[in-house]
Amino acid sequence: MTMPVMEPDLDAALLRQWAQAIDEGPFSSLCWGERIAFDNPDSLTLLGAISAWTQRVRLVTTVIVPQLHDPVMLAKGLATGDMLSGGRLTVGIGVGGRHEDYNAVGADPKTQTIRGMAERVAVMKRVWAGEKTTDSVRPVGPSPVQQGGPPLHVGTIGPKTVRSAAAWAGGMAGTTLDLDVAKQNELFDVARTAWAEAGKPEPHLATSFWFAFGPADDARGQVHRHLRRYMNWIPAEYVDAMAPMTGWAGTEDELVAVLKRFADIGTHEVQLIPTSSDIEQLRRAADVVAAL
Predict the structure, then answer these.
(1) Domain extents for the chain?
(2) Long-range contacts of 105-114 (CB under 8 A, 24+ apart)
(3) Which residues does UniProt assign to the signal peptide (predicted)?
(4) Which of 288, 281, 153, 283 is nearest to 226 (CA)?
(5) Which of 30, 37, 68, 171 is the most buried (most CB within 10 A)?
(6) Tell me, what's the pLDDT at 154?
(7) What are the distances in angstroms from CA 279 to CA 46, 224, 242?
(8) Helix ranges, 26-175 (H)
(9) Distance of CA 211 to the CA centre of its chain
(10) What is the pLDDT of residue 80?
(11) Domain 12-291, CATH 3.20.20.30 — does that match?
(12) How does pLDDT run across 212-258, given as a tens digit for each residue?
């Protein structure tokens, strides 16, 4: 389950309520995404809070863009989160598709590449291994609880990025806009093949999609409103055109059927993305997951 971090009018009480309800429920992971030129909470600050608010659930960034951060400071922040959470952190890493986020932090747009991402991952892994990155007296700490650092998953829908990430990632933190199971399985097959060719164990295969419960028109309208807000870097007419086919909207039984289709292709985890901060949407999703 993903936190409603891209919704308006958030406060600490609401975020804590969601985090604790996810932790108490049947969910395998608590996820949250990153944006810079938006009013969502900062990812690393939120990681510290969620680490304190939860006890059980795995914490997953979906995704952090390392090119938007100093890689040493990012490694230190994530290692701190891994320590505070008792080793429950998984880090989704992506290139990021929004130029405005790069511009907001003064990041070099030339680094918005697969190579730029991999170079920063390499630095982070060195920090987590306890290696010195400069001639400092001591290396950068703290040491992560998980040996070698938190597991890394590549966030992408592109086969080229998936193949490249086999060198450093343990799995995928993907997404599907139209819930096309066959197309998702094709990308999973790319990952399975790439990991096998790299001599690595089978990758963790995750995907995600937006959801809304309710009568058809109301639920679809909720998804549409969310997309209009979240996809504010895309012309509104394009968002309006894609909204009717993007994400999922419907009843509990209909969501069960969708999740089973993804399970049939070997999906290890579906990360649901809310389109409202209404806690009732979370509770309805929890009932679905508990019944599977």
Answers:
(1) 12-291
(2) 105/36, 105/68, 105/69, 107/67, 107/68, 108/67, 111/67, 112/67, 114/160, 114/161, 114/164, 114/165
(3) none
(4) 281
(5) 30
(6) 98
(7) 19, 19, 26
(8) 43-53, 71-84, 99-105, 114-128, 159-165
(9) 15
(10) 98
(11) yes
(12) 999 999 999 999 999 999 999 999 999 999 999 999 999 999 999 99
Q: How far is the CA of 73 from the CAs of 45, 110, 125, 127, in angstroms? A: 13, 21, 12, 10
Cβ atoms 177, 145 nearer than 8 A: no
Own/partner contacts of 137-145, CB < 8 Å, gap of 24 or more, are: 140/72, 140/75, 140/76, 141/76, 141/79, 142/76, 142/79, 142/80, 142/83, 143/79, 143/83, 144/78, 144/79, 144/82, 144/83, 144/87, 144/89, 145/82, 145/83, 145/85, 145/86, 145/87
Q: How far is C-alpha 192 from the geometric centre of its chain's CA atoms?
A: 20
Is 247:177 a contact under the CB 8 Å cutoff? Answer: yes
pLDDT of amino acid 183: 97
Read off the pLDDT of each residue in 117-144 and give the average, rounded to a whole number.
Answer: 97
Placement of tokens 């096998």 in the chain: 196
The average confidence (pLDDT) of the chain is 97
Type of residue at 244: P
The per-residue pLDDT for 219 is 98
Q: Is the dihedral of CA 113, 67, 33, 204 positive or negative?
A: positive
